[in-house]
Specification:
- By secondary structure, the chain is an all-alpha fold.
- It has three helices and no strands.
- It is about 70% helix and about 0% strand.
């Protein structure tokens, strides 16, 4: 092997090692960014889990005290208004005039989902 061929091979290897070193630097930068994002997501996840636990505890305590957190819809409001105007809203006498309180209507109004 001639000296020139050996020198060319070493130069070629040096060039490839330089390219690999550059790729290694790029991968190192990407790995650093991924580690930072992973840490940020872990912290965010921790905070969200704490918040979820607090929300569940508040919901449980509200349910234990008998308070409902659900907001009735428009249909419920319309039925409650009909009942207040003196009409039955129960399936037994729906729409007929009401003179006294009806247990079926009241149970429907107090029904929880």
């Amino acid at each position: 092997m001639k000296n020139r061929e050996i020198f060319d091979q070493v130069s070629n290897m040096e060039k490839r090692i330089g390219e690999l070193y550059e790729q290694l630097g790029d991968l190192k930068d990407k790995l650093g960014a991924l580690l930072e994002e992973n840490h940020r997501l872990a912290v965010e996840n921790h905070h969200l889990r704490k918040r979820l636990e607090l929300t569940e505890e508040e919901t449980d305590s509200a349910n234990d005290s008998g308070q409902s957190t659900e907001i009735p819809g428009e249909g419920y409001d319309n039925l409650a208004r009909l009942y207040e105007e003196g009409f039955h809203i129960c399936n037994v006498h729906f729409g007929s005039p009401r003179e006294n309180d009806c247990l079926f209507c009241l149970s429907f109004l107090n029904k929880k989902k």
